[in-house]
């Protein structure tokens, strides 16, 4: 290749690269920062992950820093930054109950918060290290505790809207999830979060619909907040049936051929999905999570050939449930029994993705830890029993002393 051709190619590559940079910068040129800082209202359910994009910033700012305040004007402000050697957080590395400082990440000027908790509700600011703010959000994380489940197949209906003067309290539902199983009867559901409409809202908070914000928004006064405290998120569940994809049928044919060409009398058992083995001690609790699943995903559980439907196994349906599915799509087994042995299959978005072979044993050493809920329960019950015995002992002796001093009862000899 001649020198002239090489020069032309380098010039063209440099022009395309410069065009790409200009296009990225034009995104912020088209969105000027507001002269008066406003707060965009956003609501999510607990344990969900969300992203807050920084919609505007000056062109001369190469990187942004995010700030968090529990309330507007609070003296305590958390600085969220990925600089100074911080490693980017991945969703799979986040543990439940971790502090927000280890559950966030900043990518392309956007803030990502993983497994958000109600304590993460507050105000989020996009700005610089010097404290200059460009864009802000009013985030409301609503707890799933006390969530009301409604099963449409049983004729149940969602909670009706509430009216109190100019205050209107209602539930805004998300879209229906895909069917959680294929080829058999499955279920689909959608979450509903608490919202209200009132003219007595702070004008500094931007609303998608006039005078409408989520119930936990900072725009809601303390007086209105007490009136909506009893309104919890809702969950609608209904049955569905969808066919499986052709790809899965082809996979079944390949497995059949594999079994056919195996030696007669020693055909191996080939699982359709990856199987993980777990051994659990008898009487202890177990929580199983579906790989790659999030609370907003359609997740289903099967034990061997038994389908665990939410109409029977959803948390809160029965207070005495030993096996149940929580609102974060996790399968709970309390006080493991011998008949819990088997393979638990996990469906995600209508596709079976994993299996867990559970073995229950009554032998072996089990490390005692106060982080184990069964250990804490045993210690609490033991202490309560000792306190009760001590209280009865002291009461009997006090009564005996009173009787002896006031000659109200005969003397007891021991």
TrEMBL record:
Residues 268-346 form the Ig-like domain. The keyword Cytoplasm does not apply. Keywords: Glycoprotein, Membrane, Signal, Transmembrane, Transmembrane helix. It is a single-pass type I membrane protein. The keyword Electron transport does not apply. It comes from the Eukaryota. One of its GO terms (cellular component) is membrane. Residues 1-18 form the signal peptide. It is found in: Membrane. The chain crosses the membrane at residues 383-406. Pfam families: V-set (PF07686). SUPFAM superfamilies: Immunoglobulin. Belongs to the FAM187 family. This is Family with sequence similarity 187 member A. The lineage of its organism: Eukaryota, Metazoa, Chordata, Craniata, Vertebrata.
């Amino acid at each position: 290749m001649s020198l002239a051709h090489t020069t032309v190619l380098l010039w063209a590559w440099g022009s395309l690269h410069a065009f790409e940079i200009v296009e990225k910068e034009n995104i912020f040129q088209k969105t000027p920062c507001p002269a008066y800082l406003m707060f965009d209202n956003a609501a999510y359910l607990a344990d969900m992950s969300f992203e807050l994009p920084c919609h505007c910033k000056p062109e001369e700012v190469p990187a942004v820093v995010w700030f968090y305040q529990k309330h507007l004007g609070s003296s305590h402000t958390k600085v969220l930054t990925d600089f100074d050697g911080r490693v980017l957080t991945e969703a799979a590395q986040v543990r439940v109950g971790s502090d927000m400082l280890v559950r966030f990440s900043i990518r392309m000027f956007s803030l990502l918060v993983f497994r958000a908790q109600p304590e993460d509700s507050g105000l989020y600011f996009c700005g610089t290290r010097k404290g200059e703010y460009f864009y802000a959000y009013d985030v409301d994380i609503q707890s799933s505790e006390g969530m009301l489940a409604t099963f449409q197949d049983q004729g149940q209906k969602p909670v009706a809207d509430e009216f109190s003067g100019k205050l209107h309290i209602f539930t805004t539902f998300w879209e229906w999830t895909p069917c959680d199983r294929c080829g058999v009867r499955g279920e689909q559901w959608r979450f509903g979060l608490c919202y209200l409409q009132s003219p007595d809202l702070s004008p500094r908070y931007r609303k998608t619909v006039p005078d409408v914000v989520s119930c936990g928004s900072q725009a809601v006064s303390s007086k209105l907040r007490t009136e909506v405290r009893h309104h919890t998120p809702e969950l609608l569940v209904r049955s569905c049936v969808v066919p499986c994809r052709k790809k899965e049928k082809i996979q079944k044919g390949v497995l059949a051929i594999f079994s056919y060409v195996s030696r007669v009398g020693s055909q191996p058992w080939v699982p359709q999905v990856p199987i993980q083995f777990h051994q659990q001690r008898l009487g202890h609790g177990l929580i199983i999570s579906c790989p790659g699943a999030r609370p907003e995903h359609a997740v289903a559980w099967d034990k061997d050939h038994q389908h665990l439907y939410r109409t029977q196994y959803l948390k809160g349906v029965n207070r005495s449930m030993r096996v149940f599915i929580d609102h974060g799509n996790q399968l709970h087994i309390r006080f493991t029994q011998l008949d819990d042995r088997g393979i638990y299959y996990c469906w995600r978005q209508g596709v079976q993705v994993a299996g867990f072979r559970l073995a229950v044993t009554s032998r072996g050493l089990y490390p005692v830890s106060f982080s184990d809920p069964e250990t804490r329960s045993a210690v609490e019950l033991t202490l309560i029993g000792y306190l009760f015995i001590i209280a009865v002992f002291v009461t009997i002796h006090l009564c005996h002393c009173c009787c002896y001093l006031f000659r109200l009862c005969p003397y007891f000899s021991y």
